[in-house]
Amino acid sequence: MEIFDGGSGGGRKIKFNKKFNWIGYLVLALILVIIAGVLSLGLITDYIWMDSLDYAGVFTTILSSKILLAVAGFILFAAGTFFTLYWIRRSYMKHFDPNQLPPILLRRKAIIFIMIGISAIIGLFGSSVIQGIGWERTLKFLNHVSFGQTDPYFDMDISFYVYVLPFLKFIVFVLIGLSVFFLLLEIGAYSVFQMYRLSRSAQMHLGTTLGVIGLLLAANHVLQPFDTLSTNQVNLFQQSVVTGLSYTDDLINVPKAYILAAVAIIMTIWMIVALVRGRLRSVVVPIAVYVGLAIIGQGASVVVQNFIVSPNEFSKEKPYLEDDLSYTKAAYDLDSIEERQHPGNKSLTQEMVERNSGTIDNVRMNDSRPLLDVYNQLQTFRTYYEFNDVDIDRYKIDGNYEQVFLGARELNTTDLPSQAKTWVNQNLRYTHGYGLAMSHVNQVTPQGQPEYMLKNLPPEGSMDVERPQIYFGEEPYKNVIVNSKVEEFDYPSGDENVDTRFKANTGISLSGINRLLFALNEGSFRMLISDQVTSDSQLLDTRNIMDRVNRIAPFFTYDQDPYLVVRDDGSTVWMLDAYLTAESYPYSEAFQGETNYIRNSVKVSIDAYTGEVNFYIAEPDDPLMQTFRNIFPDLFTEDIPEDIKAHFRYPEKLFTVQASMYGTYHMSDLEVFYNREDFWQFPTEKYFNEDTTMEPYYTTLKLPNQDEEEFILMIPYTPKNRQNMIAWMGVRNDGDNYGDIFVYRFPKQRNIYGPQQIENRINQDSEISQELNLWSQGGSEVIRGNLLAIPIEDTVLYVEPIYIESNNETSLPEVKRVVLAYGDQIVMEANFDKALEEMLKTVDPKAEDEGEQGDQEDDKPDSSQPIIGAEEQLQEFSDLFKDYKQALSSGDWQKAAEIMDELEGMLDNETKVPAPDNPEPSNDKGKNSNATESSSDQKTAKDKE
């Protein structure tokens, strides 16, 4: 046919083929564009999101470094793979007759294309590894700042160990891994028909690869002596008492590393020469020598550690222990701690209490864990509200410096009714939580509930909250769209709901192509087609604050306890601590894994309404901080607003690490340090009816030689395997004194009661234990709160709240009693004021005399007033007591407890003296406390009835 033989028909056929080819090319190009678009969609939306927060520079810095490293990794892995495969094919072509080879190897273009494909796959893997692991190391290496301090052995700046050494080790390990991969590939290829014995090309290939591996091993051995400065491992089997260079390292391991480096180079030359000359058997000799020397080195290390160091460990390790001690203190910022002596006197008086009224008035009577249950039951109002956490902070309210509890009322749409879980409700209408609750730390109602400073919807109380809406918080929030045609639910008000609209411009505009991009990114077709979404709408993306800061700056380690702050203008922000850590600080003991350096150099604020994020520089002199500042100059904010700075809290995690380290590294005498003779540890306490290690806690104290109370984070210490208190550590949180750490030591010659000793004495007190047991047998659970040691001038008080909670699911924990311990005395009363009054009567005779005089005046009987109804009351008491005895004998403990509560309430009422017609002003807290106790007990009895 002509169509196949040429002519006009054939021409038309050729034209048809060309059209078909162009269509195919267009389809292929379209497919490639779609694939590229899908792969780049995440990058594009990430950039738009970062740019909306003014952190596009951070995004481009990280992305450009990853791209450059990915290209470098791709070239390295792909080129190395192609070179290896090409040499293998070339060796096959030289060694075998073409008839002996597979046909594919003879087709040059096809086999080159296959090798390129395999190399590209390996290159992609390599680029992923290099950019994924290496981008941060590379940026730190290129932008690092000197520490201004050198190590005592190699005299290298600390920055070499923190930045340069990890980068060099990364390069060496990547190259060794790649070379070993190529060697295994070559061994597999050249094992066919024993080519490694017969083919000179195969031998040269293997020799070259072995030579590269040998040089890389030599480089690794050259770096190994520097590693000895940040570990206590002296061989595969033993550890030294020294973190850092030890006697065995100095005598054996450092010289061994250099010897093995030299042997590796000699081995490389030997193997190359042997392979060139065809002496395959002699190749084994240098390998055997190298392995033998490595084993001998390990053996020598074991011998020296066992027979030279161990019998005389302190004398051998003494100079290295000194470096361990000083450099660990520097790594954890412990070298500037001021130690003071605390006499631990029993000097509590009424005058001392009055001098320290700010401390006394801020003693906590609540704990955050039971308080969270109370907030969630009494301050949520709707099922879709939730308090995630209750935090502690301090504010100046009406001129008074006061410690407070507060929590954010966040939105949790998972608790919406199923019929309300529509796309519109979850994405357009229910967009935010609302307001917060705040309560006094030292006040409770007669029912044992917190005394609120801010409560209800909208918030009312001691301060104005101008923007109570919480769009960003701790909940696992979904992305939402604001400023749509749907009004946003704000808060419930009676039978109606109040609506609002988002008034900031910090979200991502959904106009133009943004709507398509983010609809694709969200996988939401409804977002794209919904007529409720307009060009004025904004997408609020990544609303969980932990996810938000990690997405912006993933190179920091973040504290897991953000806390809410009410600013002076009535807006609310979340505060979060960011930690800068390192793993190779010389001579420093690691606190977690290999991390042996930590600073809280960055404070982060996240606006709860707008989502704006600020990274504030808290420690500008920290070398890690300066390095990150060089890398990301646009990330940090230097000027810290005063109302933000006033709420900086020294983080508990950092303080726990420092306090734990100081328990060992406070010992300045090397022999004492070596023997750990004066090791301090955190005490234990009974919390929620379980013995647990005490955690640091915030309190308000007036330190010696200071005029005002301060917000202090503190922790007591006890000696190892002992329960008496040996010292306590604190850190200041306010003003220019922020971050100043101090330690008070108690006398070692006499016992200062520790927390667990106080807990044991509470358990052993017959009256207290009897009352607690009675409550627990009456269908309620007794919960022991945090035991707080409160230093006041030269003495120490212990305070522990006691909660009562019934066993049903909807019960509320109530502060029923407060235990106060001082010296050998323990009292338990309805509140702290009453307990303190009773304690002062015991330990301060002057206070007792004054109290008795006041009682005598107040209790003086009025002869003109007859006792009305005395017989009826006595009969009522008698009947109740009979019922109480009968309930006990029948084993009905719950009924007995209810009757006893009623008796106590009646007795308390009868012991009260009626107020005169014209009462004088009185500061007698004891009587107020007594009234509180009575009303509390009466309500408890009524509730139980």
Please provide a written account of the structure.
This protein has 945 residues and is an alpha+beta fold. Among the domains are: 95 residues, no CATH class; 176 residues, no CATH class. It has 29 helices and 32 strands. The strands form eight sheets. Strands 1, 21, 24, 25, 26 and 27 form a six-stranded mixed sheet that branches. Strands 2, 3, 4, 6, 7 and 8 form a six-stranded antiparallel sheet that branches. Strands 15, 16, 17, 18, 19 and 20 form a six-stranded mixed sheet that branches. α3 runs parallel beside α6. The chain is globular. It starts with a helix and ends with a helix. The N terminus and C terminus are likely disordered.
What key phrases describe this protein's structure?
945 residues, alpha+beta, six-stranded mixed sheet, six-stranded antiparallel sheet, 29 helices, 32 strands, 49% helix, globular, disordered N terminus, cell membrane, transmembrane helix, UPF0182 protein FFL34_10225, UPF0182, membrane
- Give a quick account of the main beta sheet: strands, pairing sense, barrel closure: 6 strands, mixed
Question: What's the total number of strands?
Answer: 32
Number of helices: 29
* Oligomerization: single chain
Amino- and carboxy-terminal Cα gap: 108 Å
Membrane topology: Multi-pass membrane protein
Protein name: UPF0182 protein FFL34_10225
Keywords: Cell membrane, Membrane, Transmembrane, Transmembrane helix
Pfam family, one: UPF0182
